[in-house]
Amino acid sequence: MRAPEECRSMAELRAEIDRLDRALVAMLAERAGYIDRAAALKPGEGLPARIGNRIDEVIGNVRGSAVKAGLDPALAETLWRELIEWAIAREEAAMGAKENRA
């Protein structure tokens, strides 16, 4: 792992970006596992897939984390809103499939 300023060529820089991309994909896959578990738990707790105040909480957390990390909070919010919508659709599909089996 090299810091950006330690990269002496575009090849080195691209290798680090590719390494980060692999790590981000792995983390997103891990997050998807938690989304799947949420879809299994929510019906038993009487919760819908979309919970507005939780969305607001997640976005607030992400914006705060972005500011602390030196990332544009508007970019982080845009990315997370897309991720959240994907997660809700995934939960709704799973929860609907369970309802159809009942």
UniProtKB/TrEMBL annotation:
The name this protein goes by in its record: chorismate mutase
Naturally occurring in which organism (per UniProt): Rhodovulum iodosum
UniProt EC number: 5.4.99.5
UniProt cross-references to InterPro entries, sorted A to Z: Chorismate_II_sf (IPR036263), Chorismate_mutase-related (IPR051331), CM_dom_sf (IPR036979), CM_II_prokaryot (IPR002701), Isochorismate_pyruvate-lyase (IPR008241)
Family annotation (Pfam families): CM_2 (PF01817)
Gene Ontology molecular function, alphabetical: lyase activity
Enzyme class (EC, first level): isomerase
SMART domains in the record: CM_2
PROSITE patterns xrefs: CHORISMATE_MUT_2
Superkingdom of source: Bacteria
Domain named Chorismate mutase: residues: 4-95
Keywords: Isomerase, Lyase, Pyruvate
Source species taxonomy: Bacteria, Pseudomonadati, Pseudomonadota, Alphaproteobacteria, Rhodobacterales
